[in-house]
Input
Amino acid sequence: MSARDGRSVGELLLHADTAARDLLFDVTGEDAPAMLRTWGEVVQNAAELWQALPARPRGGTAGGQLMVQLEAITQRMHRTQLRQGWPSAGDPDERLLSVAESFGAARDLVTAHAGAPGQARSLAAMRDAHAARTRTMHALYVAAHAVSIAVREHVQHLREMPRVDKQWARTTRGIPRGTEALERLTAFEQLAGSYLSDRFVGSLRAEHRDGYAGLGRLCDAITRWDLQAHRTIAANSTPANLATIARTTAVINRTSLILVRAAAHTGTADPVTYEQQIAPAFEEAIRAQSHMARLWGSLTNAMTRKVDPKLWAAAEQLQAATRELIHDKTALADPTLIAERADLRDLAPVVKVATVAGFTLASDVREIATHHTGLSAPARAMLDFARNAEHARGPGDEDVLGESLSPTDLQHNRVRPLIEPVRAILVRDAYEASMRQAGASGAVLALWTPREPVAGGSAAGRVRNLALDQPVPVGPPARPGPGWK
Amino acid sequence: MPDPGNATHSTDVSIVLFRVVDLLAAAGRGLWARAAAEGPLAATYSLAQEVDLTADLAASLIPGDAEDHRSLADHTSTSGDQLAMLAEAEALLRSRPIECLPAGTSQLLVRLGDLIRQERP
Output
């Protein structure tokens, strides 16, 4: 029990956890200065608690070393803040302060009961110490993420301020200093996360390295995705993996569409070709892949939805690269903003890589749907799938679908090989999806086909061809030759 | 503090994770349908993909030997409001101590927090 308020160590750490989670929902860029002022105290108290907890008998020093590293990152951050005078003196963040106080009270309680730090003397004591460490690291990880969000939004806000407002030295200083703090917080978050999972998982706003952004990052992400998707298909063609592939192909199609639209709006692509050919072809391809994702997804359940971790990571990296280019907070970015973020004269090779990847993947998926005998799905999911897809039965029509699966398989919802009615639907719709991908690829070629210059230099007339016989690059896009615009 | 190795706890945790995956999968389906209706120029496609990636992550946390103890009716009891489904998934995870949930749950919680903040009006 706590000497201060009667709460146990477990309850105090539960409070720290809950307060940290609540921060995730409420945090804004305005909170950043106060949070940065308070962060050092949170980490210091957590590190002291960590030190006070009984150690595991025989070794187990990795976690202790990790906490030392986390404390060191935070101390460097704090010293930099003092030296730079940013953020300036002011109030602490009360919510983070309550997390720090919970860690401090837990530390006092452990120290009062256990005296000097030593080894756990029983299995129960060892288990409690491990649980306390997990709760502490978890609360730190979540809180670090919340502080990162605040700092990122704060920096973004400063960057977007009108030029006249940026004349204030304090405003201008906040951008590099906030960026530096964010880099350290990101390192902290990743390090704390490594204690909580052996699988690296980024946040939705995964940060990129400085100077590596825009179309180069997107093109790399598409190339990596394409490579991994083919590897996954070759090794493990399951409905869960195929659903992820279809979904991500739809996302790539959509990103290409939005980028070409931005190029058309800002004069680096032909707006007429965009309206008449690109938009309809890509919209059809997006619809077809979304439909395939739904079909494959409906053949999974919570137990069979095991996506290849490497495929998942490639899809997530692609999502982060996409979001960075075409989103403005939670809305789609305006074409002019997209054009500010990326030099859209470099777009042609990226869109070609995207459409070629989409077409080859769609063709491979069609082959798998047609010939792969190892495809399987839960029995009930297959029955629902086939019943939803078939035409409504008339009076007197027999329901023969149930006969494709044994009553025992249905009762226990066992994973069984694909039944023929399900495969037939998948083959038909996978063929349609690959045709739609071919349509999108064809439309891209049309956009970058030479056109006769239009007198007066309209947007359409300014567009020239990027030589179509150029090889499709496999890295960041090369700067196109003269004549692209 | 509760013992994560206890068999009752393991079953309880699996039930929570099954439900969380179902909720996220249902939210993903709803968002993809909404995205299709709104068209590619709406932001919903990105959100739908992020929710599905989060559902994949949640499914990866279910132990390979877990048994699905739920009844058929449980599989379909979702509200239709995607934000409510995300909030329900977060609340379910919050109802169990973090040390009783599989490694990787902290990352899942952070992703859920990001999604809920993003979706809240």
